Amino acid sequence: MAGSSYGTLFKLTTFGESHGTAIGGIVEGLPANVSIDLNLVQKELERRKPGQSALTTPRKEADELQILSGIFEGKTTGSPIGFMIANSNAKSEDYLHMKEAYRPSHADFTYQQKYGHRDYRGGGRSSARETACRVVAGAMAKQVLSSIGIEFSTYVSQIGHVIFSSKEFFNLAEIEANNVRCPNVELAAQMTARIQEIQAAGDSIGGCIQCVIQGVPVGLGEPVFDKLHAELGKAMLSINAVKGFEIGSGFSSLGMTGSEHNDVFLSNGQTKTNHSGGIQGGISNGMPIDFRVAFKPVATIMQDQHSIDRDGNEITIEGKGRHDACVLPRAVPIVEAMAAIVLLDFYLRNKAIHL
Amino acid sequence: MAGSSYGTLFKLTTFGESHGTAIGGIVEGLPANVSIDLNLVQKELERRKPGQSALTTPRKEADELQILSGIFEGKTTGSPIGFMIANSNAKSEDYLHMKEAYRPSHADFTYQQKYGHRDYRGGGRSSARETACRVVAGAMAKQVLSSIGIEFSTYVSQIGHVIFSSKEFFNLAEIEANNVRCPNVELAAQMTARIQEIQAAGDSIGGCIQCVIQGVPVGLGEPVFDKLHAELGKAMLSINAVKGFEIGSGFSSLGMTGSEHNDVFLSNGQTKTNHSGGIQGGISNGMPIDFRVAFKPVATIMQDQHSIDRDGNEITIEGKGRHDACVLPRAVPIVEAMAAIVLLDFYLRNKAIHL
Amino acid sequence: MAGSSYGTLFKLTTFGESHGTAIGGIVEGLPANVSIDLNLVQKELERRKPGQSALTTPRKEADELQILSGIFEGKTTGSPIGFMIANSNAKSEDYLHMKEAYRPSHADFTYQQKYGHRDYRGGGRSSARETACRVVAGAMAKQVLSSIGIEFSTYVSQIGHVIFSSKEFFNLAEIEANNVRCPNVELAAQMTARIQEIQAAGDSIGGCIQCVIQGVPVGLGEPVFDKLHAELGKAMLSINAVKGFEIGSGFSSLGMTGSEHNDVFLSNGQTKTNHSGGIQGGISNGMPIDFRVAFKPVATIMQDQHSIDRDGNEITIEGKGRHDACVLPRAVPIVEAMAAIVLLDFYLRNKAIHL
Amino acid sequence: MAGSSYGTLFKLTTFGESHGTAIGGIVEGLPANVSIDLNLVQKELERRKPGQSALTTPRKEADELQILSGIFEGKTTGSPIGFMIANSNAKSEDYLHMKEAYRPSHADFTYQQKYGHRDYRGGGRSSARETACRVVAGAMAKQVLSSIGIEFSTYVSQIGHVIFSSKEFFNLAEIEANNVRCPNVELAAQMTARIQEIQAAGDSIGGCIQCVIQGVPVGLGEPVFDKLHAELGKAMLSINAVKGFEIGSGFSSLGMTGSEHNDVFLSNGQTKTNHSGGIQGGISNGMPIDFRVAFKPVATIMQDQHSIDRDGNEITIEGKGRHDACVLPRAVPIVEAMAAIVLLDFYLRNKAIHL
Hints:
Number of strands of chain A: 17
Low-confidence stretches of chain A: none
Order of helices and strands of chain A: EEEHEEEEEHHEEHHEHEHEEEEEH
Radius of gyration of chain A: 21 Å
Strand content of chain A: 15-25%
Largest sheet of chain A: 5 strands, antiparallel
Number of helices of chain A: 8
Largest interface: C-D, 110 and 111 residues
Mean pLDDT of chain A: 95
Strand order of the largest sheet of chain A: 1-2-3-7-4
Helix content of chain A: 25-40%
Oligomer: homotetramer
């Protein structure tokens, strides 16, 4: 059972390696007979695209979306939407030295061991380039969700030790106001400085992304195993470089007592506090959903590193190529896309509860 | 698409409410023609069972496992294993006051809104009682995994502010040496004291469970979406009261640089450090897998709480019944069971990679 | 990926061997908050039950349904419905001679080879006894479908060479009017005579079951792979002893030209003829669905047969035990149950097409 | 749950409409590190391609396969294989008259009713053009299966009333010896004559395809629901224009008694007769698998037909365009492809039975 699909009723299946002919996918279950604005989808791709600002890798990829099926006269037909994004500007020669090498904390070793054969160029299938396909499906899902009032606010809340503690809902303009995609101007500047410092040192740094979802109707989530936050957790942990996930009070709940933590009801069914993060018993309760996603510092650094090759020989990996010192700004649309994919899937699943 | 199943090739489907006739499930995909020691399964159930120590609820449940099919002459036949655990000692009258009430931070409100009808007795389907079924399937999976060298060490690493920082592998005797299931004797005593204090106050408290898995072969995990740690994350987040999950360096990676975080290879393919937590690119790399699971303080407390009923009337929920002030000790076998279910499933999935 | 589940949104998972403790299953996805009449379910079980008439095996099984969860105060809660039927009157000693024997055209050989271990008593998992679980789920599905106007008419249309050519919709009373469940009185008598003749000879005989479904809304079916008739075909072919399936014109279409076969539209969207059998392009078109299911003569006969044992030794299988010479009358509720399971699943799936 | 995927461990997901930009798909689960000869895949496409002989539509499509991912240096990497086939020579203007029209026994009406919006050009998603994607996946599966000794023989066994009764295994050269793909020279000539006669009359005709599979190991099939022949049945019934399926003795078993029908074992585990069609209890028994697939006469005829449009107005559909009077010759590779997809999937599933 290959792991190239995500979702059940709304489902994305992807293909493609970093330096192959193309990446792409098939979106199934997007509701029929709805308008999809492909310009908005392309815009989301551009938020993820490398080379978009001084904070990201100078590697340029056009990332131009081609729709192959399923949308006719601007509207979905209910048939699967095939799409592709051609790979271009792939300097595979940059990766020839990787053919036999196992880069530290990359997937070279595990892919080679698991499959016995791999496309080593640019990380092949293990490259985060595949996340562009997630952004495509997510951007479509967001349009549909927006039409029923579900809206997303996703932003960088931590870079290294610089922390923006907030569960507030910011609009897109506030988030896009700076390259780091942190809506707090002052902290964004500190984050930017920290990334530039790390960049100059040829190193990398991680951080945290906050996602807040408003307008979620009560009832999304399928206990006991497919609790809404469990699936959100899987969706986030499936993104490259993610090492942790927490919902609502998360790890900070460990320092609280039940009497402090319980969300007391108001008479309208809302709650005074929202330590539950909008989900109780695995089902959305109508309060905003909020979660955080921890990204480790990415493995590619511009420093020489000791490593081994396929035969176990000790080698030195040179720090070269075109990479991000910090992927957090580019990861914002990916987190949001995966959240939208999960939400639309559970919205459709919830419809099947009643005749 | 109901959420009562977990896994793909190795799959558990469960049924049952807290105070219904029985809980139970069907285990599919347990390899054929292997011996299963049902006493070991029953023992795992007893580690989860209420009333096992002064630290847990005095509510007594026999939790006696009945196998209905799939095991013949002590060995699996490859056919589905049906099992059930009768509900007994269910004092449903304790819950009559809950019929119309929505308890804070429970699932009463969300179940009622989602389904329009619910078994309110003892929390019904939303009760953590269903996790006994997970323990059954997990205990079977562990026996199979043990035969191929995969072993689990799961223990309490935090209660409130008392923290046992460790990624060490402890054996079962060390973990079972005290009621709190923390292998550090001194910290276990502090944790015990803290739980008793909370118990006396009629309140509740959360904590963290650490799981370490040894002997995992290289190659388990199905990128790009079904990364091994993504599925572990979902499995853990599907357990009642869990609010967070982290693998390897987890949230603490945010304070590191890439050059600090990267796991340098030894010539034998192992790594000097294990910030990756045994998984790289979503695939096990042969190093120990380690992750942490955050449990919030449970919602049931022995204090009066303000709340509402189905009609939005303000009510007071009295703190009564028989409950755990801290579920962590009883959650240890649940975490381990879910980890075993995921590992066996991915072990079988990995076999399908090659002819 | 074990094959114990059927359906996607409405799903049945079953367990149990012929002579084990019990058979049973879990029904997921039955719409929430609907009333289920369990007496009607039990009645369907009795139509399938052995020993119900002179035409069926004298073996008596109580087949008493026990609901374990998911129905509360007479209505579904949306939670999985666990159920079981205890095995009783299982004369396992009748099967001791089968422990090492491979009966011709049974599954003894294939189960032993596939799994390496099997419950040989009464055919174990390969016994048609498991179909009782299908009848339970189907009887629930039929109640839900009936509430939206979908009705089934299933009857025996052929026994050996006695053929009742009809695609008419008969009501339950007409079908139940005789033991053979053929609504044509005269042909039913001929069928009965033929079965008794075969019974007397210690032999067995096959036949055909016709199913007609009325009131199906336009739109059920999920091309391109999950066409409605493709799934109906799989559902029927999964029943023990079934060797063929045809929809609408079926195999008889081979003798027609397109101009004869095409179903011309009336102005109201209905068609003059219904060679399509109610399904076009894999999607129901609102006309009655009709299909036929071919059952071979069952393998158990009351005659001595030459065979082999596990070690390849030649043996003689004695014709003994309590068996049906013709399963067709008892297979009627099974065919209908599987049809209902498919229809309800596709009804729910079709809801997900639109927001 | 959209119906665009087939298979579980080996899985094909397809997209594309007849006159859209392209059709294509994603193949998951093809074993890693095996060589795939893409020329052989292209050759299979050419057996399905229109315009290949005087017996098929003069419509020419290049049907050139483009692999987008998953095959590197001639070998599979275990990553999903994305592929596409550009649509060319699509004379959409031929279909403008169909925009509002519902052609008899086509899917125009059902697609419009189900989805509310459709790509009407050339039948859109309901066109048999999508089966080219099945041929691609099937051709890959066949190469893998061939390496373990599983071989297919698929041929036309009936056109109208001309019947070639055979369950023999013919090799590819024998089948390809004539345009009709019937290995009996004399009957092939009669079939050809019949097709030309029908073609001249502007009508269409159906027929039957026989498939024989040799070298299948004992043990494939996952009872109780995913019996091997049940899945083969679904696979075949999912092909456009198929109305019936039978395995082994099929519908002709209705005229036999059990004592005639039972397949007596030889001491080597094989059977003297093969009425079971190579499958017992849903599991392959090592004997050749044989089944037949009934194709109705296709709906498109070169005659004027009475019909209705979207608004219920009575209209006349003119018989024009470029179509096959008989699709059987071109359907041979499609049947074989679907059989190969099912066999490889069950081969992989069977591996998961044992550790």
